[in-house]
Design a protein that fits this description.
With 282 residues, the chain is of the alpha+beta class. It has 5 helices and 12 strands. Helix 1 packs parallel to helix 5. 30% of the residues are buried. It binds zinc ion (2 copies).
Length: 282
């Protein structure tokens, strides 16, 4: 049994999209805390996936804002927030989801996040005039367990219907959007809000598990949680010529509380394969 680092402490989560379903069981079991839900605040003002409100801050900054708001509303001094992003994979033509779960403990002035990156997502869009095509898109997206969003014409239309979760409503909404459109077409997309997207909910769980795993590294000197690698120093020597490569030579962890430093030489072996060497394989 791991040490219950937040035993009897209340942690606030600001969400109106039921993110507690992913976070609460894992966090409470692993840390002994009690998760308090604040749902009376419209987190959409920080930005939406459907572009009706643009997110102006980075993913991490937005999570910080949510925590600050949650602490303000609840009067608690420790908060947690989840913030996701969706887009194309950086190198291959596939959708990509990055989920961040951030914890901030004001008492300790301590911040730590868990992260999960995954191609496991139904993130997709379609513009069509055909209800048949819209239906096949819906079926591929995991509808109706995964909800849909539709609007007339294109992705930027201000008329928008979110959270569609049954076939009858889909049919009605589609017909309404066609009638409202200039082009006769409808823009349909997957609803990425947590309560509308079970695949995303799974990814938030995984980010929460990553946070717990990081928290459960304790400083060998003062036992503060979250003692993780804070710096990776490059320069692992090439196996052939011995010149430094870009691979990691040593990892360094520094305790944010007592400043204890632990360095670990050769975390991934003593030499770099020649294919990583700038000299042998330029
Ligand atoms: Zn320490
Ligand atoms: Zn070399």
């Amino acid at each position: 049994m791991e040490k219950q680092i937040y035993k009897n402490r209340k942690i606030v989560l600001l969400t109106k999209h039921k993110k507690e379903e992913a976070i609460k069981p894992i966090l409470e079991k692993a840390t002994g805390c009690r998760l308090i839900i604040e749902s009376g605040f419209d987190t959409d003002i920080f930005g939406t996936f459907s572009r009706d409100i643009t997110r102006t801050k980075s993913q991490l900054e937005t999570a910080r804002l949510k925590i600050r708001e949650g602490m303000l509303l609840s009067g608690l001094d420790i908060g947690i927030a989840s913030e996701g992003s969706f887009g194309p994979h950086p190198f291959i033509p596939a959708p990509w989801n990055i989920e961040l779960v951030l914890l901030f403990d004001q008492q300790e002035n301590f911040e730590l996040y868990g992260i999960h990156e995954s191609g496991e997502t139904n993130f997709a869009q379609l513009t069509t005039a055909s209800f048949e095509e819209a239906l096949s898109f819906a079926n591929k997206s995991g509808f109706p367990e995964h909800f849909l969003i539709i609007r007339p014409d294109d992705s930027e239309s201000e008329q928008i219907i979110k959270g569609i979760n049954n076939y009858e409503w889909l049919k009605e909404a589609f017909a309404w959007c066609v009638a409202e459109s200039h082009s006769g077409k409808v823009f349909i997309e997957t609803d990425m809000r947590a309560h509308a997207n079970p695949i995303r909910m799974e990814n938030i769980k995984k980010a929460t598990e990553d946070l717990i795993e990081k928290l459960h590294n304790f400083c060998p000197n003062c036992t503060a949680p979250g003692f993780i690698v804070s710096e990776r120093i490059k320069g692992l020597p090439c196996e052939l010529c011995g010149l430094p490569s870009d691979l990691v030579l040593k990892n360094s962890s520094k305790c944010r509380k007592c400043s204890y430093v632990l360095e670990r030489l050769h975390p991934n072996g003593q030499f770099a394969a020649a294919k990583y060497c700038h000299f042998c394989n330029p």
